[in-house]
Design brief:
Blueprint lengths: L2 H13 L3 E3 L2 H6 L13 E4 L3 H14 L3 E4 L14 E4 L7 E4 L3 E4 L5 H9 L3 E2 L12 H6 L7 H4 L6 E7 L5 E5 L21 H21 L1 H7 L16 E2 L2 E2 L1 H5 L8 E8 L1 E2 L3 E9 L2 H12 L5 E6 H10 L2 H5 L6 E9 L2 H18 L5 E5 L2 H17 L8 E2 L6 E2 L5 H14 L4 E5 L5 E8 L4 H20 L11 H4 L3 H5 L2 H12 L29 H9 L25 H9 L18 H5 L7 H12 L11 H7 L7 H5 L6 H16 L3 H7 L1 H10 L1 H7 L3 H11 L15 H7 L12 E5 L1 H7 L1 H13 L3 E3 L9 H6 L2 H20 L3 E4 L2 H14 L3 H8 L1 E3 H10 L13 E4 L3 H6 L4 H7 L5 E4 L18 H7 L1 H7 L6 E3 L3 H7 L7 E2 L1 H9 L3 H10 L7
Parallel strand pairs: 2-4, 3-4, 22-23, 22-24, 24-25, 26-27, 26-28, 28-29
Antiparallel strand pairs: 1-2, 5-6, 6-12, 7-13, 8-9, 8-12, 10-11, 14-16, 14-17, 15-16, 15-20, 18-21, 19-21, 20-21
The structure holds flavin-adenine dinucleotide and iron/sulfur cluster (2 copies).
The site of one iron/sulfur cluster has 13 residues, from helix 23, helix 25 and helix 26.
Amino acid sequence: MDQERARIQEDLRGVVDGEVRCDDLFLQLYSSDASIYQIKPRAVIRPRHVQDVVATVQYASEHGIAVHARGAGSGLAGESLGSGLVIDFSHHMRRIIGFDGESVTVQPGVVYAHLNKYLAKHNRLFGPDPSTGQVTTMGSVLALDNSGSHWLRYGSARAYVEELEVVLADGTVLRLGQDNNLETLCAVPHRRGFTHFGETPTVARLDDIQQRLGTILATHHANIAEHTPKSLVHRCGYHLNNLRQGEHLNLAQLITGSEGTLALITQAKLRTVALPPHVGVLLLFFDKMEKAIQASAHAVNMDVSACDLLDRRLLILARDTDARFVQTIPSDAEAMLLVEVTADTRAEVRERLSDITEQIQKSKRLAFASRIALEQDEIAQAWSITQNVIPTLYRLKGNSRAIPFVEDIAVPPAAMPTVLPQLQEVLRKHQVTASIFGHIGHGQLHIRPFLDVNDQDDIRKLHALACELYEPVVQAQGTISGEHGAGLSRTWFMRKQFGPLYEAFAEVKRLFDPLHILNPGKVIAEMPQPIHNNLRPVTHNEQNEQNEQNEQEVIDDAPPVGPAPNTVELQLAWSHEELAYAARNCNGCARCRTEDENSRMCPIFRFAPQEEASPRAKANLVRGIITGRMPLSTINEDQFKQVVDLCVNCHQCRIECPAGVDIPRLVTEAKAQYVATNGISFSDSLFTRLDRTARWASRFSKFYNYAIANRTLRWIAQKTTGLAQGRKLPAVAKSSFLKWAEQQRLDRTSRKDGDKVVYFTDVFATWFDTNLGKAAVKTLQHNGISVYVPTEQLWSAAAAIAEGDVQYARKVAQVNVAILADAIRQGYTVVTSEPAAAMCLTQEYPALLDDDDTALVAEQTQDICHYLWNLHRRGRLELTFQPQNYQVGYHLPCHLRALQDHTPGEHLLRLIPGIRVHRIDKGCSGMAGVFGLKSQNYRNSLRSGWGLLSTMRDSEIQVGTTECSACKIQMEQGTSKPTLHPIKLLALAYNIMPELEEQLRGAARDLIVS
Ligand SMILES: Cc1cc2nc3c(=O)[nH]c(=O)nc-3n(C[C@H](O)[C@H](O)[C@H](O)COP(=O)(O)OP(=O)(O)OC[C@H]3O[C@@H](n4cnc5c(N)ncnc54)[C@H](O)[C@@H]3O)c2cc1C
Ligand code: SF4
Ligand code: SF4
């Protein structure tokens, strides 16, 4: 950390209650967003309250340092990036303060989706809907005056602002409302040596602003009328229309949409609306884009609440990346319109959608196919096409990406048929392809040209393309930004957009922020950054080369440090290019910050919603090192380890990230680099060498089983090994399952024909729940499958891989692969009853070993339930089950979810007569392998698994079931109900393991009524 940053950190820590971080590692996390830019800030502050914001702003003002407000960092134009102090509102200031039935008061860090979830309980809604609503914060929604697909119904955020509490550039706190009532102004007492603003100077400041702003408006009256874009939406520049309300100017309306350049929002009172009673969606498919645009004009006249357009490229992508859309989207569609209507009754919704279909498809013959969605899940599925597909563009192979820099054009809808061909012509001229998506109903187009920001020729195209694309837009009195703001990519073009009105904006900026400390370089800038400066580097040194060539001033003051990291020996079986490619695939869209209950995205971010816990943070760190923005030695620092340790290798982000970024692999490489240098501590090795620990426990099983039930010994274990004292642990078996298998002569292969499996057991079935292994074998045999259990097999080493102990894990993998590949060559299929083991054999081992045998094993491995379900689908599963009579709660483990898109274990249980299966959809169990066993994670593990734990207590669930041994431990943590692997329940129902019945009854005597 340089001297300046060290001083800032020390100074600010003295006056701010929230966190202040100035170290390189942390700053790297806040250097980028969803745009193409990267700028390293000097500090990151996470304020706890308005006083922290005031203290930061005053400090910045006294020292001439810039301040940049930030929410989720999902901006597409680099709106929140800068070299000054980043204030992250999303961490502490995320409270919904009050709701009076109509208006809601929020802190700026409240996530949009959380607000609407809260309001839905009261049948209310905050209408304007950016498609990133699952992560975007309300401070940003207001700072950017966001809108989205439903602009036709709800307009933009500004219309809902009743009151704002804001901090000005000098630290003054104002409460601004519709009439700026002076009595309601708040004057916040400042602490720790900072100036105390009494009410008098606050009132004087407000009066001064009112007066001088009045003069600016009067002077520029004609320019405001003439040069404000005539598109239905427009989001760049300052809002100078209709500010006067009686005696006063409505400053809250001006601050809304000002991108954090005039004031920082610390609280907002917002109007809400009633939830629409009934909603329906219509998908219309066209063979020509022009027909879709024509159709949108008809649809808008039929009072629709949304009308979005997708082009052919996006439709193909939607079909390719989501099997559900193969049936929905005709393969020959060139364009699609998604139209939504609302009405008081369902019948009315249906009727209105039928009317639109009649008009557009039958009468005007514009669309060639259509689909109506009336059920909630169908509607959500239809919307997911438009909401998911843009970030999915990053899944396309190659170095060119659909990058955002001219992605926010809007024109008056009537001009669209003329402007769109002009835009397409510009793209053609530059030989650039682009995807086109838009809220076409209100004239908004999101164009994403495919370019490589690592290629000098493409970089040179950015400016020319923007200039030429913006030309017809401005001519048509449209706007270069309809939703996203000016940011770094559009401030350069503000003069072109606004002509003489730009001078009025500059005066407004001087009035509010004479020192230009609030988010400088956005909206107004004396020297706006050219569109190609500060591009996010994706390879080493590229930033320097770029800026030298551009001969432009570089804001970012962090040149590459040290040698290129491709001199480092990688720990996983991949090349430096593959590693760099994986890291650059993360476009920063922030989707992985979601806490949505319908998704399983990062369990760690859910209980610790802070940037470093997000999957994105890991990609940003690795990219920082690859590009030389952070020294290589960072990998060996504890701070680095702390961030990568906030990943438990659950693989949920890999499947849910729209760009398919393999974060778990990046993290494993990073952890492995740390371990290669620092080694593994003894206490960590108890977890990473779980088989060794289990073997010892089994050797002294009497003592171990006594110890885990004894409070004092558990306390000692916590102090000496880090094993959580409160964790209920499974008893160890005296003799291992593999020994039993040997006794049963399962350790030899068979030459017979027919279905044959080789059973890979892993630690839990081998040492702890040996009955699970036996149930697996007996169930398979009961179905006529020949079972082979090689007794020289080792454990999967899943915990070692998750901790980065890959050198050891590789040796284990080599042994297992040799045994299993040999069996496969003899006609065997590998099955395992442990999801983490299935993940290792199919995903993790190929990341450790690049050879044919490993690929063969990966290809031929199945989870045991998956195997049996396939058997059933072939009509080969024995269905002679004894009727059972109990209710089962099924939990799907993360690793299985990452491997397959259905739940065969649950399907199998549903075949057993009498069993009632309840699906517990509460996300991750919180155990995450051995994560939840450690004392430092114990509480967090319980917190993140709370949904599952509390559902297990429901009286209607008598027995839990899951495939994963770690999830089982968690499910049994807070209840006396047993949790069994589905295979055990099958074995019970086949009546082939009476001893299990005993076990089940013993554990839940009064629960099971047979
Ligand atoms: C795939 C994708 C789709 C998108 N779709 C839409 C869309 O449909 N509609 C739309 O409008 N946008 C859209 N966006 C852009 C972006 O997500 C939104 O603009 C969103 O509101 C940004 O929220 P955030 O919390 O991530 O803000 P950030 O990016 O963190 O910040 C955005 C701006 O708000 C300012 N700000 C944040 N908090 C405050 C505060 N408390 N006081 C003052 N200023 C503050 C910042 O300084 C910055 O200028 C999309 C982005 C992506 C990646
Ligand atoms: S990891 Fe995926 S979801 Fe997260 S920011 Fe990167 S691209 Fe978006
Ligand atoms: S693998 Fe799991 S824990 Fe790790 S970053 Fe992804 S979602 Fe989070």
